[in-house]
Design brief:
- By secondary structure, this protein is an all-alpha fold.
- It has a domain of 42 residues.
- 40% of the residues lie in helices and 0% in strands.
Length: 121
């Protein structure tokens, strides 16, 4: 007589069922317990840290700042462009490194662009 624990073979047209998983394949639901001995063992097995000497301190490069605009240059620009606020003239002059001619060229372009935009067609 056949034993009662045997599984009958699947019919020929069906694939066989997958094998049952091993206990090693399943994750454990037990809480992780780290003992002082485990910590000591991990520290002993760890490689020493790698020390790289740094000859120069590393820092992020800073953008060069424009020198503050000179009062004489602002006054010259204010005499040529009286419709501009002196604070605006000071910013434009500082952006051009206190070069009054370069600031004046920029202001001429700005004024010309404003006249072009506001003139009737």
């Amino acid at each position: 007589m056949a034993s009662t624990n045997e599984v009958p073979p699947p019919p020929p047209d069906e694939p066989p069922p997958p094998p049952p998983p091993d206990d090693d394949d399943l994750p454990s639901l037990a809480p992780l317990m780290i003992t002082p001995g485990m910590v000591a063992q991990a520290r002993a097995a760890a490689l020493p840290p790698i020390v790289v000497p740094v000859a120069v301190a590393l820092s992020a490069p800073t953008a060069p700042t424009a020198p503050p605009a000179s009062d004489d240059g602002v006054e010259m620009l204010a005499a040529m462009f009286p419709t501009y606020d002196k604070e605006i003239l000071s910013i434009i002059l500082a952006d051009h490194s206190n070069n009054v001619e370069a600031a004046m060229d920029q202001l001429v372009l700005l004024t010309r662009d404003q006249l072009t935009l506001t003139s009737p067609s």
